[in-house]
Design brief:
Length: 450
């Protein structure tokens, strides 16, 4: 294939790289572009379509990541055959077809895809890929040293975490690391989780054969008196931005929690959820640094800062558990591809991550403010000072969810995040990172000031 013609839409906010990606993906799925066919070079297609090479490069990168194209070094890009269920598991005949996504979804686990640093990521990725062929071989089980060293420096500077690169384990997502951690700690333990909380965390701990105690919250976070009475040995907490309540645990409650762990030789799993997005309060250092690191296991991820599909999370093990890991789990292979590890390392060590974080914080701050304005003062707002979602309490919460659904807008109730019983909170949990300004403005129709 020499070239193809595409007329770009100019009256849409959809960027040109996305329009190009969609056109090529649709052409491959409909077999207009045949398997094995060589795509035009980036330069020739850019010249033909009168667009930048960067635009073509970003579209091609996404197509490669999604399996539509195959990149062959020093040769070009080739069309791959797309099966009807590519990337999806084989389903039993009785399994229901997944429901289509809503037109607008105020879910809490999305990011602004338009703010992803495509050109920088592509540039670094290409440099790493072409100059380091040895990365095709297996790397260190806990993650390559260069990345772990960059993470250690980043944590020391931005979160007050005190650790060496040796203590850091890199893995493909918090879920994988939590599964590994339950093995390192051992079976048949009693875990405490926050109630309300994150259901996936609870499920992973329970599936590993452990008992769970559900601990309530107050205005400072997890209640230490209930925790003490529960008999739990490990507490899983989200102190920087409790999910889903949005509470930031103050210093005195953190000190209480650390004392609980140290006096009983217990462990705290500190999931530093959304700690990067602090808009209105003085940042509080991680508990791991406060405690000296002996009884706190630190967990975090780059998925919220960059993108959920970049599965690069990490945990910091205290010395006692690090010894267990090195004795029994060194044979486990790393679950994060080495090219991605080294691209991420270059992104952190080159200062790009800090600059990117400053930029997206600005974007999200403005989006949060727009959302609060859209609620028209008709709901009591909380959790807005940190994180990427807010809570909106209104006696009309259930009705708003139903009315929004009629226009294919998905909103969520805080009621659904309680484990032991469904409480009536009259509160909506509204994620704003992955929606447009226009989507946010639609909420004005449902939140009408009396």
């Amino acid at each position: 294939m020499n070239n193809f013609t595409l007329v770009f839409e100019t009256d849409t906010k959809k960027p040109m790289y996305e329009q190009l990606y969609q056109y090529i993906a649709d052409s491959i799925k409909s077999e207009i572009f045949e398997k094995g066919e060589r795509m035009p070079s980036k330069k020739s297609l850019a010249a033909h379509l009168k667009i930048s090479v960067n635009t073509v490069e970003i579209a091609y990168l996404i197509l490669v990541q999604e399996g539509y194209l195959k990149a062959v070094p020093r040769s070009g890009y080739y069309v791959q055959k797309i099966e009807p269920h590519i990337g999806a598991p084989v389903r039993a005949e009785t399994e229901e077809t997944p429901k289509p996504r809503p037109r607008v979804d105020f879910r809490t686990n999305a990011v602004d895809v338009g703010s992803f640093p495509y050109s920088t990521w592509v540039k670094l990725s290409k440099e790493i890929m072409y100059s380091n062929p040895e990365l095709l071989n297996a790397g260190e089980p806990r993650g390559d040293y260069e990345l772990r060293e960059s993470i250690a420096r980043y944590l020391a500077e931005f979160r007050g975490v005190k650790c060496s690169a040796r203590q850091i384990i890199v893995g493909a997502g918090i879920e994988y690391l939590l599964m590994l951690l339950t093995e390192i700690i051992g079976k048949d333990k009693i875990y405490a989780v926050e109630n309300p909380g994150y259901s996936k965390t609870e499920r992973i701990i329970k599936n590993a054969g452990n008992e769970i105690k559900y601990i309530g919250l107050d205005e400072k976070g997890i209640r230490v008196d209930e925790l003490e009475a529960s008999g739990a040995e490990i507490a899983y907490v989200t102190p920087s931005h409790q999910f889903p309540s949005g509470v930031t645990m103050p210093m005195d409650r953190r000190a209480e929690l650390i004392a609980w762990a140290e006096t009983g030789r217990r462990y705290i799993i500190e999931d530093d959820y959304n700690s990067e997005f602090n808009f209105s309060i003085k940042p509080i250092p991680a508990m791991q640094g406060m405690s000296g690191g002996g009884r706190v296991i630190y967990l975090s991820t780059f998925s919220r800062v960059l993108a959920p599909s970049i599965r690069a999370a990490y945990m910091v093990l205290p010395p006692e558990l690090l010894n267990v890991y090195e004795r029994n789990f060194q044979g486990y292979s790393s679950t994060v591809p080495r090219f991605e590890q080294h691209t991420l390392n270059a992104f952190i060590s080159g200062g790009y991550l800090a600059r990117h974080l400053n930029r997206v914080k600005n974007i999200y701050r403005k989006r949060r403010d727009r959302l609060i304005r859209a609620l028209n003062g008709s709901a009591r707002i909380s959790g807005e000072k940190t994180g990427l979602h807010i809570l909106a309490e209104t006696p009309f919460a259930d009705n708003i969810i139903k009315e929004a659904a009629k226009r294919d807008i998905c909103l969520y109730s805080l009621d659904d995040y309680f484990f032991t019983e469904r409480k009536k909170t009259d509160t909506l949990i509204i994620g704003y990172a992955g929606v447009s300004d226009e989507n946010i403005d639609e909420l004005k129709d449902f939140f009408i000031k009396e």
